[in-house]
Design a protein that fits this description.
By secondary structure, this protein is of the alpha+beta class. It has one domain: 3-Layer(aba) Sandwich (Aminopeptidase). It contains two helices and four strands; from the N terminus they run H-E-H-E-E-E. Strands 1, 2, 3 and 4 form a four-stranded antiparallel β-sheet that branches. The protein is globular and about 40 Å long. The model has no long low-confidence stretch (mean pLDDT about 95).
Length: about 90
């Protein structure tokens, strides 16, 4: 299961992504019984990477990939994968 966020610029830095993510983790690990939740972004999206790290996700370099929706050679094509596992 993937988690993600897309916020209007004036909502950046307000903690909305972190707050909503924690609620999604509670629902995913609780009611849905998931073992793992992932998230990804372009390697240059430092703000989203910071959110993923702040909410307890860790990078999974083996899961990094080239986004097929971005043209080959484009600097936004390489993506990084983060994950969080059920806290058991």
């Amino acid at each position: 299961m993937e988690i993600g966020w897309r916020l209007a610029h004036d909502a950046w830095g307000q903690g909305y992504a972190s707050e909503a993510s924690k609620a999604c983790f509670a629902h995913g690990f609780g009611e849905l019984g998931l073992d793992k939740i992932v998230s990804f972004t372009t390697q240059y999206n430092k703000r989203s990477i910071a959110v993923m790290e702040r909410i307890g996700m860790t990078r999974d370099p083996e899961g990094d990939f080239e986004c097929p929706q971005v043209p080959i050679g484009h600097p936004q094509r390489p993506h990084v994968l983060y994950k969080i596992e059920h806290p058991n």
